[in-house]
Amino acid sequence: MAQHNESAFEDHICQALQASGWLYSPNDHEYDRERALFPADVLGWLEDTQPDQLAKVVKPADSPAEQRAAELLLLARVCKVLDKPATREAGMLSVLRTGFKDVSAKFEMCQFKPAMGLNPVTLERYGKVRLRVMRQVHYSTSNQNSIDLVLFVNGLPVATIELKTDFTQNIRDAVEQYKHNRLPKDAKTNKEEPLLAFGRRALVHFAVSNDEIQMTTHLKGKDTFFLPFNLGKNGHKGNPDNPNGSSTSYLWEQVLQRDTWLGILGKFLHLQVSDSTNPVTGERDLRKSLLFPRYHQLDVVTKLVDTARVEGPGHKYLVQHSAGSGKTNSIAWTAHQLSTLHNDHDAKVFDSVIVVTDRTVLDTQLQDAIYQIEHKSGVVVPIRGTGGSKSAELTAALVARTPIIIVTIQTFPFALKAIAESKALVGRNFAIIADEAHSSQTGSTANKLKQVLSAEELADVNDGGEIDVEAFLAAEMAERADAKNISYFAFTATPKAKTLELFGRKGADGLPEPFHIYSMQQAIEERFILDVLQNYTSYKVAYKLAHEGREYDSEDSKVEKSEALKTLMKWVKLHEHNIAQKVALIVEHFLDNVAWRLDGKAKAMVVTGSRKEAVRYKLAIDKYISDAGYTGLGAMVAFSGQVVDTDSGPEPFTEHNMNDGLKGRTLPEAFSSTDYRIMLVANKFQTGFDQPLLVAMYVDKKLSGVSAVQTLSRLNRTAVGKDQTFVLDFVNDPAEIQASFEPYFRQATIESISDANVVHDLQAKLDAAQIYTDSEIEGLVKAYVTESGNNALSGWVAPAKSRFNTQYNTAVAQEDKVAQDALELFRKDMGSFVRAYDFLSQLYDYAETDLEKRSIYYRHLLPVLRVNDSRVELDLSEVVLAKYALKDKGTSNMALTGDGEPLKPLTDPGTGVPKDPVLVTWADIIHQANLPFEGEQLDAVAHFVDGVKRELVKNTTLQTQARNNSRQHFRSSPDLAHAVTSAVSDALDSHTSLSLQALGSKVKMKALLEMLSSLVYEELQS
């Protein structure tokens, strides 16, 4: 037999398994292909472990013939339970975990490893479990097909393996063999093959070569979907080279080792039943799927649990797993196994596991999975406040030692408070699992949390935005960072620098790094997510502003430059023409490139810069769709609270009154239906929103860093037929977007650790301002610690508040902008101190009370130091948008390398200094705003459009149609389209470049037609 043949590969695997304790059958002579069992092991297991129960069925006093008949009836009973459709009470997984009954006898078909070693009988039974590997199993009663290897547990077949050696074939051949030759029903007789029936016998099917492994839990012929089961290779797909043999040897050397393999069958495999409406067909979709862990899921859960068993409570673990990694399942498996974890002394490591998440699916999924494993209820308790106070409900669950408690990010502080203050919880240990992906909070929140936000984050929150869970956890953990009875397990795809320092573990270079990684690169290469940067088109908005009816001279009133420019740019973004032109481009691009995909069900998201922009976008897109006569393009808008925009309507705008087709559904539910194709968002649904039918994103908001990655990653979910995505960006530089993705493509790293002395520098700067005194700090801290009440606290911050207000009012009266800025900077520096100290005190032991006292004092002083924004509102009533163009800057296919800049630690907060205001005239501001667009040849574009319009206005057919038809019907006239094409062709001599661009681009011609239809219609009507 040649060494490179498949048979030699089989030999090696079987010998390795036999050496590790597996029973080995070199052929299938004792296999019962009709029952799909190995009867000798079924009966042998029952005789070894449950002789009393077996004697109730196979009576010792009976004759051999009677005993054999009884054994056949017993095997028939096993098959009857196995052959029922897979549910929590039937099928292979149920029989393995809960056994079966036969008249008066109750049989267990497997013993999984107990969490404790206190019961020698259980341990002995675990040691008697029969693991068997059988070669060349002829499984069918209809044909002579054989499967290379079948794996049994106590005579029950739980897995099949098709092998291909890479010397002669490869992994694709094994996959194709399963799809076309290992059918769950025989192709000729249509008779079901018991071994291959979903959930009834073999639970997983492995396609294995020397280099790769793929697996599936459901054979469906050519529609079978295989998942990679590989280690990963330096952040890529595949497996690392193995100098000692096949790269896939981890399957038989690790995964199929007794403890690991039985652990997978006992604690990981889960039958998931989903009942939903299919977003593509609109039909009810009842699905059953067996969840078998992908390798990185098995690896991370196993390593977290094993490490926590050794280390005990009081440690932190950071898991950087990409979108598409299956974090929901990884979290569920981790939570369950931590809840039953015992150390080597058989003591429970954690009294309760608290999962911080907004994934409501996790509640039911965990409850159902644990019921399947342990067959008991009450293990998982979600805190939802349905029975009254959430805090009371939470405390009761903690006191009762509920194994797994699920809380939202809003309820999490109550958990920490109860752990720290409840006498009933003294001496107990807890595991806290933080789920980043779905755990952001909208709306108002505690002052404590607002103090840890940056100015940019706070601006987003004030516009109805979401608060990052990492900031929230940092704020809440600050007071209890050294709690030795709490372990934190943080799951995130995009760890920030602070997250790395808080939860990371020191690597070989002394810098913090994740405990476990499943990279974005590997997820993309394994096709679990799509690369959203492969079809990225950027647009540049070019415009010129003018001020009508005024002359500027040196005596003209002046305004502060930076504020005026910000105000002017905001005015341009909200301008009706700006939004209308972008809407036209978005809708036409969607129709031409996106709408027809996924059987006509593809969807898009428009990311706007503010809630007011979202409102105006919604009004504009509804108008454009209506005017154009398009159907089936429902658009919804998502934002928090209400928006007052008197320029757009007299009443406040809300999600409810702007989305009239919700019909009682939530926005995600309605968007999943065929009623809506486009979602406009403002600081909402940019993170933690899974909609696989999203194919395109139109970005009109500045994005950078983590927010860029999280926002654009809404597109990366896979769906059948979804092979590419589209991003059209009106704001961001592609190079900056690529730089934002680079840190998370492989492994997030940090440049250095934060400087512990920045809080000392901030303290000195704040003390020097002489706004407060040491005695006031001491007084407030004493009142705070002794819980003297609101009045006492207010009294101790009143002197500093008075000094600050007096100085600020004097500066305003004297028009001293430098002094005003210095006092505003004092407030910002105080916030910087609170953020820095909250974070750094978790990393360093400052061994002094001055910093802690100031932290407490600043938290109470900061909210009462309010300033009135005395800036005069700028008058923009005379500013006009004179010229405007959207310029396509081209499509980029950005190749990520993972070699970008490392994340930056906390450095030099509070080093800002007051600056003299720069006062300029409106003429200067208008010039400054127009400056970036010099050289864009807007005059040539305007002249070209005006020339084409003049030719159209002369057209007598169009004159008649404009007088006798609505705007919409005029826009749809084929005569108009023909006239535009003719007029553009006639302009070739005078505007060669622009004419050729229009004639050569369907999108540009559509945009030109849309613009001209309105201009011509209005002129002819007048």
Span of the ends, CA to CA: 93 Å
**Backbone structural class:** alpha/beta
- Residues in β-strands, percent: 15-25%
What is the residue-averaged pLDDT?
83
Total number of β-strand segments?
33
Q: Indicate the overall shape.
A: globular
Number of helices: 39
Low-pLDDT parts are: 437-453, 548-557, 931-936
The biggest sheet amounts to: 7 strands, mixed
Radius of gyration: 34 Å
Helix content: 40-55%
Oligomer: single chain
Main sheet: strand order: 1-4-5-6-7-8-9
Describe this protein's structure.
The chain is of the alpha/beta class. The chain is built from 39 helices and 33 strands. The strands form nine sheets. The protein has a seven-stranded mixed β-sheet with strand order 1-4-5-6-7-8-9, with helices on both faces. It has a seven-stranded parallel β-sheet with strand order 14-15-13-16-19-12-22, with helices on both faces. The chain has a seven-stranded mixed β-sheet with strand order 26-29-25-30-31-23-32, sandwiched between helices. Helix 11 (327-339) crosses helix 12.
Helices and strands in order:
Blueprint: H1 6-19, E1 23-25, H2 39-49, H3 51-57, H4 64-82, H5 92-98, E2 100-102, E3 105-107, H6 120-127, E4 131-138, E5 146-153, E6 156-164, H7 171-181, E7 204-209, E8 213-216, E9 227-228, H8 250-255, H9 258-268, E10 270-277, E11 284-291, H10 295-311, E12 316-321, H11 327-339, E13 352-356, H12 360-374, E14 380-382, H13 390-399, E15 404-407, H14 412-421, E16 430-435, E17 441-442, H15 447-451, H16 455-462, E18 466-467, H17 469-477, E19 486-492, H18 497-503, E20 505-506, E21 512-513, E22 516-518, H19 520-525, E23 536-547, E24 558-560, H20 561-574, H21 576-594, H22 597-600, E25 603-608, H23 611-628, E26 635-638, E27 642-643, E28 653-654, H24 655-658, H25 667-672, E29 678-681, E30 694-700, H26 705-712, E31 726-729, H27 734-745, H28 758-768, H29 774-785, H30 790-813, H31 817-840, H32 850-861, E32 879-892, E33 919-921, H33 922-930, H34 938-953, H35 956-964, H36 967-971, H37 974-986, H38 992-1000, H39 1002-1021
Parallel strand pairs: 1-4, 6-7, 12-19, 12-22, 13-15, 13-16, 14-15, 16-19, 23-31, 25-29, 25-30, 26-29, 30-31
Antiparallel strand pairs: 2-3, 4-5, 5-6, 7-8, 8-9, 10-11, 17-18, 20-21, 23-32, 24-33, 27-28
